[in-house]
Design goal:
Strand content: 15-25%
Shape: globular
Number of domains: 2
Oligomer: single chain
Structural class: alpha/beta
CATH class of the largest domain: Alpha Beta
CATH superfamily of the largest domain: Spore Coat Polysaccharide Biosynthesis Protein SpsA, Chain A
Radius of gyration: 20 Å
Length: 297
């Protein structure tokens, strides 16, 4: 069994060393893995640093370069080159816990031998050892990503380790010339046919960077409104049974937010379901005002 680790990177030369070191430590476990890096048009010393890692010839590293097209295109392009049976992404500003690959191998049969499972979902830690969000309700918990976050009150970032044969059937879908979309858009489409298994063990460590997507979320929203609009439109077409009122309101408000940012004039008529249409109509004007105030559009 082989594991593929994907790292999209853009001007993160100062962070790559920590990730590389964590891979060297995990290399001691004897797990067969490859590290695939997509440089998304960096202008720093990223290539020189990775070239040095390759020359050391300690682990299997493959470096690729693309003009700046964003993280999601970088991952899409890396997926075409994956050779492993299992694949997951580790961003350039994150790194692996000691024993992370052993942990994945320990649960790999649950993924590889079940045709109805597309991924294992592991926990993520901050550098201070705090779990991102909450844990799964059971030590080994079967569900899907939509149910976890919209029905089961899951919070925080989780690390998805995919079965490659299924993962290759999907990609991150971007709209127009946008460069980013939430990973959840792809996860929810995978949820329609497969499940995930949540594991209460962390495998990655990382904090949010000041210049990262999460820390600059309003800028990300403003630059990529159409993809997010489509994402929330697709959520409104899903089964809302057992979804709490607060979560429904979250979807309605964000649908209105991105409909306005993307200038979708037929956003109300595009909504599926009578209740959804009524709620969007009620919330539309206050939502439009709130969007203008928040983004000064």
């Amino acid at each position: 069994m082989k594991i593929s680790i994907l790292t999209p990177t853009y001007n993160r030369a100062e962070d790559l060393e920590r990730l590389y070191t964590s891979l060297l430590v995990n290399n001691n476990s004897g797990v067969d893995f490859e590290w695939l890096i997509m440089d998304d048009g960096s202008t720093d010393k990223s290539k020189l640093i990775v070239d040095n890692y390759i020359k050391q010839d300690i682990i299997d590293i493959k470096y690729f370069y693309q003009s700046n097209q964003g993280k999601m295109v970088a991952i899409n392009n890396l997926m075409k080159r994956v050779k492993g049976d299992i694949v997951f992404t580790c961003d350039s500003d994150d790194y692996l816990r000691t024993g992370a690959l052993d942990t994945i191998v320990k649960y790999s049969k649950r993924l590889l031998e079940d045709d109805t499972v597309y991924a294992l979902a592991f926990l993520k830690e901050t550098e201070k050892g705090k779990i991102s969000g909450n844990k799964f309700p059971e030590e080994v918990h079967r569900s899907d990503m939509f149910s976890l976050y919209f029905r089961e009150k899951m919070t925080g970032e989780k690390i998805l380790v995919f079965k490659t044969s299924i993962r290759k059937k999907y990609k991150h879908e971007l709209e127009a010339d946008e460069k980013f979309i939430t990973e959840s858009r792809m996860y929810h489409k995978m949820d329609l046919d497969y499940d995930i298994i949540g594991i209460n063990e962390p495998i990655e460590i990382g904090d949010y960077k000041d210049d990262g997507y999460t820390s600059n979320i309003l800028k990300v929203f403003k630059e990529n409104p159409l993809g997010y609009y489509m994402f929330f439109k697709e959520i409104l077409e899903m089964n809302f049974e057992d979804v709490s009122f607060s979560k429904r309101m979250y979807v309605y408000k964000h649908y209105i937010l991105f409909a306005n940012l993307a200038d979708r004039s037929h956003a109300i008529s595009s909504v599926e379901g009578l209740l959804n249409k009524i709620m969007i109509m009620i919330l539309w004007i206050p939502g439009k005002i709130a969007t203008k105030r928040r983004f000064k559009t």
